[in-house]
């Protein structure tokens, strides 16, 4: 009897928690609508021009699935409530740094297009934030910053011959009835020295869209998309060339007639392939699927393991007086060994590319 009572109590608690969460979400949405209900411009939402210049991609952490950038953000918009009367003979603009601009907005009873980096991880470190406001209410926002951003779309099935897509998503906090993004023509760009050894960032593009916020309204999103190709020289020199050398030596060893030496060398090669597997696994997250590199290593491991088994059988045949049969099998093994490796790699290539 106790178990049904416990289940009933848990059901009731869950019901009240979900109801409270729903009410909280509704209240948050109502509060935001209350904030912006008096700010629905007659001519439509305020146009916020935005552009992003990525000066450096300082790091791509594929195990953590994130990347770090140094970039400059610029926005432009017109807010009549920011207008001011310049002093006689003074400049028709004012420059604010950091929190000084927020204080000026509060003093004027104005609003400004607050934004977030949707896929930001941790804190964004602003090296400098400058806002220039003209006397007629035009605002020019500049921010140079360093940030770490999530990269949830990484896929490593073709590793290490893969290319990856990286996105920087900037969302307006206000509903799209109040502010909307538009492209700041000619500003978005990539730096010429991105500081990456393993990756080659080849192209970028930008996009403006609408996204649904969790509090129940639509807002404008600016997306900066990076396309990067992995440079494979490191893996070719450190992984593929050694594997080819090991396979070549393993084949040459088959020309020895001493099966015991063959078994010892092939067993040592198994340990090398295991070591390679650990090196590769430390460079990637714990994947639930195989990569091209995995398939190559597993092919080498499986064929070498089979070679050990065959050599053990041949040694036992020789010891039991069937040396002639062992030699005939050995001749077939010697000349099929390299072709089996080539076939395994070809199958892996056709599977992943």
- Total beta strands: 11
Could you say which overall geometry the principal axes of the C-alpha atoms support?
rod-shaped
**CATH 2nd-level architecture of the largest domain:** Distorted Sandwich
Mean pLDDT: 86
> Structural class of the helix and strand makeup?
alpha+beta
Using the coordinates shown, work out and report the CATH topology of the largest domain: Acetylcholine Binding Protein, Chain: A
Query: CATH H level of the largest domain: which superfamily?
Result: Neurotransmitter-gated ion-channel ligand-binding domain
- What would CATH call the class of the largest domain? Mainly Beta
- How many helices? The count is 6
What share of residues are in beta strands?
Answer: 25-35%
Helix content: 40-55%
SSE order in H/E notation?
HEEEHEEEEEEEEHHHH
End-to-end Cα distance: 59 Å
Largest sheet: 7 strands, mixed
Catalogue the unreliable spans: 6-29
- What Rg do the Cα atoms give? 32 Å
Number of domains: 3
Tell me the layout of helices and strands.
Blueprint: H1 2-36, E1 46-61, E2 66-78, E3 93-97, H2 99-108, E4 115-117, E5 120-134, E6 138-150, E7 163-172, E8 179-183, E9 189-190, E10 199-212, E11 218-230, H3 233-253, H4 259-281, H5 292-319, H6 323-352
Parallel strand pairs: 1-8, 1-9
Antiparallel strand pairs: 1-2, 2-6, 3-5, 4-7, 5-6, 7-11, 10-11
Helix pairs in contact: 3-4, 4-5, 5-6
